[in-house]
């Protein structure tokens, strides 16, 4: 990332074959929670992070329905298919 001067805007240059920025669940949750702070809007937070506002709205929906979760290191993860099979 490069600091472009006094306006504190950061630019991230992606090199190589991958052009998209991959964000962890923790990063997505932090961004979503920032949109819920008083005086913050989704579009403003999206601009701060260089993300399309539609993507942030998607993450908010996932966060609200519980599908956007951060898994801690060492925590056991059970695939959804195993849970479905166990319920039958």
UniProtKB/TrEMBL annotation:
Coiled coil: none annotated. SUPFAM superfamilies: TrpR-like. It comes from the Bacteria. The keyword Secreted does not apply. GO terms for biological process: DNA transposition. Keywords: Plasmid. One of its GO terms (molecular function) is sequence-specific DNA binding. This is TpnC protein. It comes from Sodalis glossinidius. The gene is tpnC.
């Amino acid at each position: 990332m490069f600091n472009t001067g006094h306006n504190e805007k950061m630019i991230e240059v992606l090199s190589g074959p991958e052009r998209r920025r991959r964000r962890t669940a923790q990063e997505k949750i932090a961004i979503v929670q920032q949109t819920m702070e008083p005086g913050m809007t989704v579009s403003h937070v999206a601009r701060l992070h260089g993300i399309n506002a539609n993507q942030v709205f998607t993450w908010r929906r996932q966060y609200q329905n519980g599908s956007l979760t951060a898994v801690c290191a060492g925590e056991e993860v059970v695939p959804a298919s195993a849970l479905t099979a166990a319920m039958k």
